[in-house]
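Retry 2 of 3 after timeout on previous attempt. Resubmitting structure tokens to design endpoint.
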């Protein structure tokens, strides 16, 4: 096996995963979270403990009152160091060692989840599209790479043109959740493959989910074209924003 170095601490590692065992154990795994929006909140967990409710599948109050247009959201990690740094290197500096490592974790979590839920895996994977100008600038779409990584191992096809991204959005920075949602509305439009998702179970793949504004906007389009179930899969979930 070619020698490689731990992506976090740079010590040489002698296994296929590019992380040493100590750094792997220290990763910020996402704790049990709301199964619909994927959000973890300390107060929800302590309230559930008080009620002796240890069921790992639960829906938070927000989702009970105002459910998002997707049905399920799962994240491998919380968006914290060193995962945030790995994602940054992947996206901004074409860190393909990081991409491979994060793709491995995402696929493992994806596969395990459908086994545990005893539910059929999705029919299609839908990476969150980048606007063409952004794609040209970056040279790759990080969500597409992650979707490809799951597809290769699971044989679930990727639908590349179910949704298109219309134009570069104004920056989402500094906007609250409602403003972000408004900003994202009309960003996604149905693409040439949209009819294929009718009555199908699909999974949106993204690198980081923050306020869910992006995935909600995409899920709105998919739902309006008849998607039967929409799951969202991401490498990291921001639990506070
Ligand atoms: Zn290490
Ligand atoms: Zn929720």
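Retry 2 succeeded. Sequence:
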């Amino acid at each position: 096996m070619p020698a490689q170095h731990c992506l976090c601490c740079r010590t040489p590692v002698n296994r296929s995963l590019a992380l040493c065992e100590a750094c792997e154990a220290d990763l910020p795994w996402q704790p049990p979270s709301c199964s619909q929006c994927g959000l973890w909140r300390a107060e929800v967990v302590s309230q559930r403990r008080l009620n002796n409710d240890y069921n790992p599948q639960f829906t938070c109050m927000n989702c009970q009152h105002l459910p998002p247009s997707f049905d399920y959201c799962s994240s491998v990690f919380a968006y914290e160091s060193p995962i945030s740094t790995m994602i940054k290197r992947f996206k901004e500096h074409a860190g393909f060692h990081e991409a491979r490592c994060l793709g491995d974790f995402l696929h493992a979590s994806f596969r395990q989840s459908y086994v545990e839920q005893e539910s059929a895996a999705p029919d299609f994977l839908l990476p969150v599209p980048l606007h063409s100008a952004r794609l040209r600038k970056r040279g790759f779409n990080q969500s597409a790479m992650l979707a490809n990584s799951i597809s290769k191992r699971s044989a679930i096809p990727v639908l590349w043109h179910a949704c298109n991204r219309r134009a570069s959005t104004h920056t989402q920075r500094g906007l609250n959740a409602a403003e972000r949602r408004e900003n994202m509305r009309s960003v996604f439009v149905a693409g040439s493959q949209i009819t294929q998702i009718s009555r199908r179970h699909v999974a949106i793949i993204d690198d980081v989910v923050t306020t869910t504004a992006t995935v909600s906007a995409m899920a709105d389009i998919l739902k309006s074209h008849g998607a039967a179930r929409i799951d969202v899969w991401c490498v990291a979930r921001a639990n506070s924003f």
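Attempt log closed. Residues 114 and 121 are 6 Å apart (CA to CA).
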